[in-house]
Amino acid sequence: xxxxxxxxxxxxxxxxxxxxxxxxxxxxxxxxxxxxxxxxxxxxxxxxxxxxxxxxxxxxxxxxxxxxxxxxxxxxxxxxxxxxxxxxxxxxxxxxxxxxxxxxxxxxxxxxxxxxxxxxxxxxxxxxxxxxxxxxxxxxxxxxxxxxxxxxxxxxxxxxxxxxxxxxxxxxxxxxxxxxxxxxxxxxxxxxxxxxxxxxxxxxxxxxxxxxxxxxxxxxxxxxxxxxxxxxxxxxxxxxxxxxxxxxxxxxxxxxxxxxxxxxxxxxxxxxxxxxxxxxxxxxxxxxx
Length: 289
What we know:
- The protein is of the alpha+beta class.
- The protein is 41% helix and 29% strand.
- The chain contains 5 helices and 11 strands; from the N terminus they run ααββββββααβββββα.
- The strands form 2 sheets. A 6-stranded antiparallel beta sheet has the order 4-9-8-7-10-11, covered by helices on one side. A 5-stranded antiparallel beta sheet has the order 3-2-1-5-6.
- α3 packs antiparallel against α4 and α4 packs antiparallel against α5.
- The protein is globular, with a radius of gyration of 24 Å.
């Protein structure tokens, strides 16, 4: 490799690193601008609509709240952020909007500064690995990329373990304290898997909770490889009386739904952490040569 090629390579390396260091935090700040700068007010779900678009059904809550500055009532749908996939008329919900723009609002739990910082760190680590690997003949670069790669893998594994624990706790509560209620299938929510046969189909159900709330929402814990027919035979939903948004179809192994294999997932995550230790040791050994 001649000197000009090396200079071009190093210029690209430093340019990419600067873009990562400056661009990823900037994107994180934009994602959390509602949490940092927005006005937070209480709102109420006016109605929950189920709309059919492009072969999938989506849940669209209509929210009503009052702007305390102008005392004007605003009724509309969340225009950004994570739109709630379940709700009932009369449900209290938190609304956030930027100053002087109440029509442009978010509703429900949103991306926090901590979540964005975690994702930004993971992206920056993965990007740094790719940039360092451009110097693949340098033992120090290989050692550095190994350590960075293991850091990214460990961070991702820790995040997955946290989510896995949270889901397991939620399923345990639902199994012990959940109440069975008849439910009606009103649609199918599709998650695009990016390839033919890789899509996930989640049922959209409507049921009356113990407290009288008419809940409509997507059951993200249940999925199949085909859609759910509207107007099918009534099913049973298990939900928590104190929080009707925590619900799931009552399933059995013969129902045709794919049940997650939690022990296999835990073993896979622990194996990934073990690989981190091995790669760090290899990287350290190459760096000491």
